[in-house]
Specification:
This protein is an alpha/beta fold. It has a single domain, classed as 3-Layer(aba) Sandwich (Rossmann fold). The chain has a seven-stranded mixed β-sheet, sandwiched between helices. Strand 3 and strand 4 form a beta hairpin.
Amino acid sequence: MKIKSAEFVMSNSDVAKCPNQAIPEYAFIGRSNVGKSSLINMLTGRKSLAKTSGRPGKTQLINHFIINKNWYLVDLPGYGYARVSKSSKKTFQKFITNYFEQRKQLVSAFVLVDIRHKPQPIDLEFMQYLGMKQIPFSIIFTKADKLKPKAIENHVNAYCDDLLQFWEELPQYFVTSSSKKIGKDAVLEFIDATNTEIEQLRQDV
């Protein structure tokens, strides 16, 4: 897939106010400081489509971007904020869960994980939540440029071993680096193939 256009549409904290078109939607979420904004900018080829910040937890709303006029990229607040109040965390968590449980246009979530670290309980718990709610998701390992190829392989294998303690099958995963543009084509091809499949199903109905 080639990204020909990527435009910001809206930000809000109320799922009911999200765009109401029947357009496929892909949500990106992860712990704060996992490199989500950089990944979104890398995938879309726009340097500042999603705002990056040295301060974790800056994304605090549901942000919709229309890509190629035919699918939405959704930038969601991270979980596990370092610098927001407990009351704010509860608010964010509520509209995050509202989004996942109410948003009919959602096709798949991408859960971002820093490849340098061992599996974190909060990431595993969030994946368990998605599984319980039967929400399709893939894992995107970020910051692969920080490790050598053998270390990447070892870290991914270790992560998969941990997941297989709870899952019968592994979710699809992608290894990425925003600075090196690693994994860009694989993620976009996955989205493109999924969109094609959805369109074919619509035509068959």
